[in-house]
Amino acid sequence: MTTLYNKTALVAAVLGTLLASALPGPAYASSHREAPFIARAPKVDATDFYMFRSFEPGRDKFVTLIANYVPLQDAYGGPNYFALDPDALYEIHIDNDGDAREDLTFQFRFKNTNKDSQFTVGGKKVSIPLVINGGAIDSVNPPGLNVRETYSVDVVRGTRRGTSRSAITNASGGAREFDKPVDNIGNKSIPNYAAYAAKHVYDVNIPGCATPARMFVGQRKDSFVVNLGETFDLINIKAPAVEFLASAEKNARDDLADKNVTSIELEVAASCLTAAGGSDPVIGGWTTASLRQGRLLNPTPGGNIGASREGGAWTQVSRLGMPLVNEVVIGLKDKDRFNHSKPSADAQFADYVTNPTLPALVEVLFGSAGAKAPTNFPRNDLVATFLTGVKGLNQPAKVSAAEMLRLNTSIAPVAAGAQKRLGVIDGDNAGFPNGRRPGDDVVDIALRVVMGKLCTLNLGCAPADAPAGALRFTDGAYLDDSFFSVGFPYLKTPLAGSPQQ
After folding, report:
1. What pLDDT shows up at residue 15?
2. Fewer CB atoms near the end CB (10 Å): N or C, the chain?
3. pLDDT of residue 28
4. What is the residue-wise DSSP string for 328-394?
5. Half-sphere exposure of 362 toward its Cβ, with a 13 Å CA cutoff?
6. Quick one: 418 exposed, middle or buried, by C-beta within 10 A (0-12, 13-18, 19+)?
7. What pLDDT, on a 0 to 100 scale, did the predictor assign at position 409?
8. How far is CA 79 from CA 25, 183, 498, in A?
9. What are residue 62's DSSP bridge partners?
10. For residue 429, what are the CA distances in angstroms to 60, 410, 422, 448?
11. Which pairing describes strands 282-297 and 118-121: parallel, antiparallel, or unpaired?
12. What 3-state DSSP class applies to 472?
């Protein structure tokens, strides 16, 4: 008979194997540095994507879209901090007819302007060495800001590179250019960062949409949580499952607790995202970043001449819809390919979903102790989770199998404080995998789903297909809706680089 001690050790090893097998690069999170190429290009590395019915009071008819970029930001990371790439194209895509192709795309382009702050020294005006600021920052584009970061946004209907392109404009005055707040340098430069950042929340007009939207782009506290250190310390996970220790779900630290991230956020009326006529309330969403195909390095940069010149067609280098897919589903040899691909081409990755390797690896290593992988092939439960949406929950009326986050916009949001962190598998149908809210603990959910949790709910398979499906795996890094604000932009104020004034 397997003792309680051995069961605990087994589950620890199983969880560690699941996590360690998903770690091709030096960091593990929802999508932080998950593929070889993107680890070399952090400015265009999408880390998390959220899509949910807004739960701020009075905003329940809206959908919030959040695309996080630039992982593992240390708050003190000056002097350049973490501006987005002016040579990149950041996009959020919406498929509202289930054909795995974008019907609506929001395109963000960024620009950095060197204001060249100068001091007079010995009768000569000389540019200051500080990159970002030379004085107090308390308003939009203040005199003390040395580098001004701005952005413009277009909405494209149909294919993302099509001609049906229109500018999103400020509802107050009609401007097409928006200021992005500088990162949270510290309390001396920015005494009240929350108030300063709030001045960069814009009401905007989206052509073709009668209802104004809200928009924010700027640094936030990293919204993901994960127990990273113990996983790499020879799978030193102390409390992996709540069956064995009641406090297991809160027993480990969040190794991203001291990190910031950069968020691109839109809150759009649900009626502006669904198909015309509202015949199908289900939408799919994902975010991508693209770079130009060519780069020519300048051997003598300076003045107004940059260090490189970019050219050629846009080439997608980052992609994120459902969390953890490129980490725990896609094989290492195809991780870069996945980041460069579109949902319409996802048939090439089908085997990773229908015949996943992680559960099989768990059984090979720990089968003698009783661990059993799900036995239903193809894994229709994972097909529903990752590729089609769950029938009766968030599957479109007509659907082509493709990886993206899917949201049924007809399901009412759950107020902050009442949300269940495990979403659908705990009876909260407004949560993951029906979209994704900031407080949905997708690590714990994904660990349970890959080992057959949906089979225990008769979703795509039967309980008998998943002998370990009832095990409540956890990484011990706790997350729920108390970690976030109750209204837009939802993610918390970023950590300050210099907390003392």
Report:
1. 42
2. N
3. 43
4. HTS-GGGHHHHHH--GGGGGGGHHHHHS-HHHHHHHHHHGGGT------SS-HHHHIIIII--TTTT
5. 28
6. exposed
7. 97
8. 26, 11, 12
9. 269
10. 15, 11, 10, 17
11. unpaired
12. coil
> Which residues, 6+ apart, have CB-to-CB distance to 9 below 8 Å?
none
Q: What are the tokens at 374?
A: 């799900």
What is the pLDDT, as a whole number, of residue 307?
A: 84
Q: Distance (Å, rounded) from C-alpha 190 to C-alpha 412?
A: 38
pLDDT at 367: 63
Give, as one character, the DSSP assignment of residue 318: E
Q: Is the dihedral of CA 137, 142, 147, 151 positive or negative?
A: positive
CA-wise closest residue to 436 among 426, 444, 447, 424: 424
Question: Hey, which residues does 151 pair with through a beta bridge?
Answer: 110, 178
CA 363 to chain centroid? 31
For the chain, what is the largest distance between any 2 Cα atoms, rounded to a whole number of angstroms? 86
Instruction: Give the distance from CA 236 to its chain's centroid.
Output: 27
Its pTM stands at 0.90
**Exposed, middle or buried: residue 259 (CB in 10 Å: 0-12, 13-18, 19+)?**
buried
Q: Collapsing DSSP states into helix, strand and coil, what is residue 178?
A: strand
- CA 468 to chain CA mean position, Å: 29
How far apart CA 105 and CA 90 sit, in angstroms, is 10
Q: Tell me, what DSSP letter sits at residue 133?
A: B
Segments in the chain below pLDDT 70 = 1-38, 131, 228-248, 362, 365-371, 500-501
Please write the tens of the pLDDT for every residue from 372-422: 889 999 999 999 988 999 999 999 999 999 999 999 999 999 999 999 999
Distance (Å, whole) CA 413 – CA 270: 12
Expressed in angstroms, the distance from the first to the final Cα of the chain is 61
d(CA 218, CA 227): 26
In terms of Cα–Cα distance, which of 188, 190, 109 is closest to 142?
A: 190
> Which residues in 165-258 belong to E strands, given as ranges?
165-167, 169-170, 178-179, 202-205, 213-221
Please give the pLDDT value at position 400: 95
| Structure tokens given for 397 | 């009326």
102 in Cβ contact with 77 (< 8 Å): no
Structure tokens at 498: 């210099």
What pLDDT is attached to residue 329? 80
pLDDT (tens digit, 9 = 90+) per residue, 171-210?
A: 999 999 999 999 999 988 899 999 999 999 999 999 999 9
User: 33, 260 in Cβ contact below 8 A?
Assistant: no
Q: State how far the Cα of 149 lies from the Cα of 67, in Å rounded to an integer.
A: 18
Phi, psi of 254 (to 5 degrees): -90, 115
Q: What integer pLDDT is reported at residue 26 of this predicted model?
A: 36
